[in-house]
Design a protein that fits this description.
Oligomer: heterodimer
Helix content of chain A: 25-40%
Distance between the termini of chain A: 64 Å
Shape of chain A: elongated
Shape of chain B: globular
Number of strands of chain B: 19
Strand order of the largest sheet of chain B: 5-2-1-9-17
Strand content of chain B: 5-15%
Largest interface: A-B, 81 and 83 residues
Radius of gyration of chain B: 25 Å
Strand content of chain A: 5-15%
Helix content of chain B: 25-40%
Number of helices of chain B: 18
CATH architecture of the largest domain in chain A: Orthogonal Bundle
Order of helices and strands of chain A: EEHEEEEEHHHHHHHH
CATH topology of the largest domain in chain A: Fumarate Reductase Iron-sulfur Protein, Chain B, domain 2
CATH superfamily of the largest domain in chain A: Alpha-helical ferredoxin
Distance between the termini of chain B: 40 Å
CATH class of one domain in chain B: Alpha Beta
CATH topology of one domain in chain B: Flavocytochrome C3, Chain A, domain 1
Chain lengths: 249, 667
């Protein structure tokens, strides 16, 4: 198929960007979206132009490095799918595709479609862990039974890949779904309860410092999340936050 | 005597590690604060090492080329992690895990290292649980296990098909905790360009800031390389796009011996190549072989008809199918080790029985698993004489609970529903057992330089068993290096801060600077991928699933010619300052073009078949691998001599005191 691409080009974070038009042809339905981008870049290199910079690594939908706002949606039109797992059979010959970076104050542009998501790292550093040393001298793994229901919910929250689609989808550029997924995972496990109240306060505080907006219950985050992280996590985080804020030390 | 000293402690194997830990030198807490350690890579080995060393009190600088340490490719490991917990009471033990790993590695690994790995495996599970890693659990709240290829016990712990992700995020959280304390300084989007040697010791690195393009000097009293494997030398592999050999290869050129580079693992269950545009391959977890049955048609006409789309696989009756693994290896069946399963698939496809358009695929069929699970589930629900539809419905649900995410991924890529029609799979490059040579302390032949995880060669011999990579990465990082590094650093307490202004740093930086300028100013006519694809094809054809002397000799010549062409004709767009992924790729491919030649040289010199290394000249009458223990029971460690083709071979003899060398049989 032949396609028209409208791609966001921006040399670096301190220069203004703009949309540019490109044509690609001979695109096969079995190609992934990023393989289509590879073809565009090969073309640009042949012509001596600067290829489009975008982040990607595993191309299996698990590392969370690929991003891109495709036709206005983070990771494009297919539900529960990262850009690298989106295949061109979802598009038609003659389509025009708009490709932009994830846009948020907390995600400054590095170049073209690549953004800096180290704000997410700092939110985790603020408390997204259990304070246990790595000595290996802990309890036997089976000494802490975890109810299957809670273990499964904790797992589901833990499958977040930290891609930032939730932020890009949100009209407030809120990072509540991302933050709440980690808060929930650890709050649901007995090992994580010990630090639960400090954790939620510190992580929410960091989230605010990074310039992410508030949640106004739009729900676009969960709708666009490639790993289908549930909105319930935000509810759980709010509960955790509230009870942590009103309990006396 | 060999120049290689493996430093294996004396005494009975079960006591070696304990004894060694007691004998090893310690660094006191006040001195640790004055010692800097550099960690390259933040996968399972790197994150766990950086976190552990920082906890102990060392000042750690950690580097990753991705935009966050959480992206490292360990994250893509699916199936699970082995540990000798014996929770299933099926006769498992440290000894059995040790035995299975040595046997699975086709008797080409070092006994003492493997025993230590098996010994600390149980701590990994406890550690991960304490960190909040959500392993699969049963209704009693206890940890669940599954079984994996090449073994007869269930010792694999898992978190659905995302075990690597969960373990990596556990290690990443431990790392994040140390970053927040200021004990680890994290450098995202930085790539190691070279190691810097001062007075015969590794004293730091040159790194490239991938955002600004600037070269930076970083000093340390030790450097710990956890930079992963080199599977991307084949262009197409299950590795991430950025996975590369450069850190290891740079270290090799500065004196670190490269061991067994020809031992590469071709994983049997990957999604077949769909066309020329293919940029990478996707693995389907080996755990699928627990329930999936592998087959091709018995008759060539049927295979032909399926290839042309005239027949559907479901139309073939049971006796028209050849379940070739069950036929050839009745005792292990579909659960033979990876190397055996891959070669068997290649053998059938080469013989004309392949089932996709290209003839390079076999079926992985879940129909009988769906039926079996469906019947069990009907029994549980008390349904007498369930209808076929009911069995199918219940069975599909059960299979979905186990492998749902893998089935979904398959459907997304191939656009075929694996609940209704068998999956198509084919072997693909997945893991490299070879790597930088290390002693028992995980130190390379360069003093002060360590290699952990997939980057080293030590534990998997000529073939790695499933669910053992996660085990090794975390064992090295959490439980081995924290002890062994002290033995070296105890001598460094008087060194003081290391300046980056010396001539050695300057020279290394200049070399890298020139290299980058050369690539940018080359203005040739072909892109980096053009050369990478050519290299990949040579490697896959001549140094892939089977190798022979003539092919390997030709491949060495071809790679050398391709390397020359690359430096003359490669075209790297853009500028050197600023974010330029094409330039970074060019630097990596330049190193692959050298490593590839060494891999072929190693494969040529090993005149036997062992694990992932199959030499056509050395096979039994039934086509099984023929190992030659009398002459080849050694590790090939290569010393760089100015050109990959001129590398000098050093042998580390392998002695087996606890396990008898046998022909590996899974029949």
């Amino acid at each position: 198929m032949d396609l028209t691409l409208k791609v966001w080009r921006q040399p670096n974070g301190s220069t203004k960007g703009k949309m540019e038009d490109y044509q690609v042809s001979g695109i096969d339905g079995d190609m992934s979206f990023l393989e289509m981008m590879d073809i565009l870049n090969e073309q640009l290199i042949e012509k001596g132009e600067d290829p489009v910079a975008f982040d990607h690594d595993c191309r299996e939908g698990i590392c969370g490095m690929c991003s891109m706002q495709i036709n206005g949606e983070p990771h494009g039109p297919e539900k529960a799918t990262t850009t690298c797992q989106l295949h061109m059979r979802k598009f038609k010959n003659g389509d025009t595709i708009y490709i932009e970076p994830f846009r948020a104050n907390g995600f400054p542009v590095v170049k073209d479609l690549a953004v800096d998501r180290s704000s997410f790292d700092r939110i985790i550093q603020a408390g997204g862990y259990i304070s246990v040393n790595t000595s290996g001298n802990t309890l036997d793994g089976n000494a802490i039974p975890v109810e299957k229901k809670n273990a499964d919910m904790a797992f589901n929250a833990a499958t977040c890949i930290g891609c930032g689609a939730c932020v890009a989808a949100c009209p407030n550029a809120s990072a509540m779904l991302f933050t709440s997924a980690k808060v929930s995972q650890l709050a649901l496990l007995p090992q994580g309860r010990v630090e639960a109240s400090k954790r939620v306060q510190n992580m929410v505080h960091q989230m605010d410092l990074e310039g992410f907006g508030n949640c106004s219950n739009v729900g676009a985050c969960a709708e666009e999340c490639p790993k289908e992280i549930s909105l319930e996590n935000i509810a759980r985080m709010n509960r955790e936050y509230l009870s942590a804020s009103i309990s006396s030390e | 005597m060999s120049v290689l000293d493996s430093k294996i402690p004396s005494g009975p194997i079960a006591q070696k590690w304990t004894k060694h830990k007691n004998d090893i030198k310690l660094v006191n807490p006040a001195n640790k604060r004055n010692i800097d350690v550099i960690v390259i890579g933040t996968g399972l080995a790197g994150s766990s090492a950086a976190a552990s060393l920082a906890e102990m009190g060392y000042n750690v600088k950690a580097f990753c080329f991705q935009d966050s340490p959480r992206r490292a490719h360990s994250i893509a490991a699916q199936g699970g992690i082995n540990a000798a917990k014996n929770y299933q009471n099926d006769g498992d033990s440290v000894y059995r895990l040790f035995y299975d790993t040595v046997k699975g590695g086709d008797y080409r690994s070092r006994e003492a290292n493997v025993y230590r790995l098996a010994e600390v495996s149980t701590n990994i599970i406890d550690q991960a649980v304490a960190q909040g890693v959500p392993f699969a659990r049963d209704y009693g709240g206890q940890l669940d296990n599954r079984s994996f290829g090449g073994v007869q016990v269930s010792r694999t712990f898992y978190a659905k098909g995302q075990t690597g992700q969960q373990l990596l995020l556990g290690a990443y959280s431990a790392l994040s905790r140390q970053i927040s304390k200021g004990k680890v300084k994290m450098y995202n989007r930085h790539e190691m360009m070279d190691i810097v040697m001062v007075d015969g010791k590794c004293r730091g690195i040159i790194a490239k800031n991938l955002v600004t393009g600037e070269l930076e000097r970083h000093s340390g009293h030790a450097v710990v390389m956890c930079s992963g494997g080199y599977g991307n030398v084949f262009f197409l592999s299950t590795n991430a796009m950025g996975s590369n050999c450069s850190a290891a290869w740079r270290a090799h050129k500065k004196g670190a011996f490269f061991a067994n580079p020809c031992y590469t693992q071709i994983h049997p269950t990957c999604i077949p190549v769909s066309g020329e545009h293919q940029s990478k391959l996707t693995l389907m977890s080996e755990s699928l072989r627990n329930d999936g049955r592998i087959w091709v048609p018995k008759k060539k006409e049927d295979a032909e008809a399926i290839r042309q789309g005239k027949k559907k696989p479901t139309e073939l009756s049971e006796d028209e199918r050849d379940y070739y693994l069950e036929r050839r290896y009745p005792s292990f069946g579909n659960l033979v080790p990876r190397d055996v399963a891959s070669r068997a698939a290649k053998e059938r496809c080469d013989a004309g029985f392949g089932v996709n358009k290209t003839g390079q695929a076999v079926f992985l069929d879940f129909a009988s698993a769906i039926k079996r699970y469906g019947k069990t589930e009907a029994n549980i629900q008390g349904i007498d004489n369930p209808s076929n539809e009911k069995i199918q419905e219940l069975g599909k649900k059960a299979v979905e609970a186990k492998y749902g995410n893998l089935f979904e991924m398959y459907e997304k890529i191939v656009d075929d529903n694996p609940y209704e029609t068998p999956m198509m799979i084919f072997p693909a490059v997945h893991y490299t057992m070879g790597g930088i040579w290390v002693d028992y302390n995980l130190m390379t032949t360069v003093p002060g330089l360590y290699a952990l995880g997939e980057a080293n060669f030590s534990d998997h011999g000529a073939n790695r068993l499933g669910a053992s990579a996660l085990m090794q990465g975390l064992a090295d990082g959490y439980f081995v290096i924290p002890y062994t590094i002290g033995d070296y650093l105890a001598e460094e307490i008087r060194t003081g801060p290391i300046s980056v202004d010396g001539p050695e740093f300057e020279r290394s930086e200049k070399e890298m600077d020139d290299r980058i300028n050369q690539l940018i100013n080359n203005k040739g006519s072909h892109s980096v991928d053009f050369f990478h694809k050519k290299l990949g094809k040579i490697m896959w054809d001549e140094c892939g699933m089977s190798r022979n002397a003539d092919g390997l000799k030709q491949a060495m010549k071809d790679i050398r010619a391709l390397r020359e062409e690359f430096w003359k004709d490669v075209k790297v767009p853009g500028r050197r300052d600023g974010f330029n992924p094409e330039l970074d790729k060019a630097l990596r491919v330049a190193d692959f073009l050298e490593l590839g030649e060494l891999m072929c040289k190693d494969a040529l010199s090993r005149e036997e078949s062992a694990g992932g290394h199959f030499r056509e000249e050395y096979q039994t009458e039934e086509g099984e691998a023929l190992r030659r223990d009398d002459e080849y029971a050694f590790v090939s460690a290569w010393e760089y001599k100015g050109d990959p083709g001129e590398a000098e071979l050093h042998k580390e003899e392998l002695t087996f005191e606890n396990i008898e060398l046998k022909t590996r049989s899974y029949k």
